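lol so apparently i was supposed to do this last week
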Amino acid sequence: MTTLYQAHLTELTNRYEDALSHFNLDAIVLASGEKSYYFQDDHTHPFHAYSGAQQWLPFTLGAETYLIIKAGQKPTLVWPVRDDFWHAPNPVPAGDWQQHWNIVEAKKADKWFAELPEKTAWLGPQPMSFSTPCDGLKAYVDFSKAVKTPFEINAIKKANYRAAKGHIAAKHAFLDGMSELEIHLAFLQASQQHALQEPYAGIVGLDEHAAVLHYEYKAIERQTNSRTLLIDAGASEHGYASDITRTFVRHNDEFSALVDSLDKMEQSLCAKVLPGVEYRALHQDTLIGISTLLHEHKICSLSIEEQLEKRIPQVFFPHGLGHLLGLQVHDVGGHQADKAGNLSLPAEHAPFLRCTRTLEENMVVTIEPGLYFIPMLLEKMQAEIRNHGCDLSKIQQFMQYGGIRIEDNVVAKETASENLTREAFSKQETTNL
Ligand code: GLY
Ligand code: MN
Ligand code: MN
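anyway here it is w/ manganese (II) ion bound
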């Protein structure tokens, strides 16, 4: 029986053999990258392997690992043998995957690359002097990375499952009155990872902090009767990320009604993730949806058309609807129009909309509308937009809750979208989300 991994490897081999022939190459080397040091220090930055190399293997790649791809041959893995007494040994991981690879163990000083053919291109950090410059190769392979294989979708599904456990633990920690730091630790423990393994640094904001889009602190102090928790945090499965946001509230009030409305709107957007759909059109639908909520919840009295014309929705939703998701949280190729690397960056959405692709079957994207009460943007609105129609005293009330974001990871399937995040939460059964 063909495993998901074998089928994945066959698909990657086809993609790269096509690239080898398109660029008239004999080999492509993919490098995971090297560790880098803090300035004047002997500690290294956290390491993430280059996604082009990571994509080929079913376990998390470390530094200084190289793959050699040649047409008609098994791929070669050049594995860095670590022979020092400071670090744990790093044997080649066991498993069936080994049948499909030539494995070469190499010490740092070994000249494994001396044998490479002349027409070898290099992808990844540290281009080496022997490699032929190959303009366009990266864009060529990046474009097809947007369409995920079943092996990759399964990894993102597992990453969602672990992160959903973390989000539920975070919700309980919030309801128990914990601090931002304690909530983050509860998330990490339940999702079984330490902070450096997160696909991105988790965002944990209570109350007004929920209005800071990339709030980077974790307050140690507990806050009496916190009202809102916005948590944007994911997990990683051999490099594949989940990227999930939930907004939890303590009280049933006007703000929780707004959260419920945004949640409904978010789910209706997720249902539109289908092949052939322009992601940009979904972003436009979101702006309409936000203006509808502002009107229905009596935050803005202007009609939908007037709001759109005056860019009122952007005051409350100042970012893009989402992005491609994969080995990188903001996966590569989101702005590419084609394999040649031409870009599609319509001025009206630049620079915030990270995906302008037409959706294809098995693309995975995030859908993450938000509605925030951001002091800086509200002041700007009052200064610059005449007759904005907004109820400023109501907005003042809402500011103490910060804001809302709800983010799911969704696969475009042929007949219906598959919401990996909602599936992961419903499997947990302990949540009423
Ligand atoms: N967590 C980053 C993002 O949602 O795009
Ligand atoms: Mn996120
Ligand atoms: Mn995201």
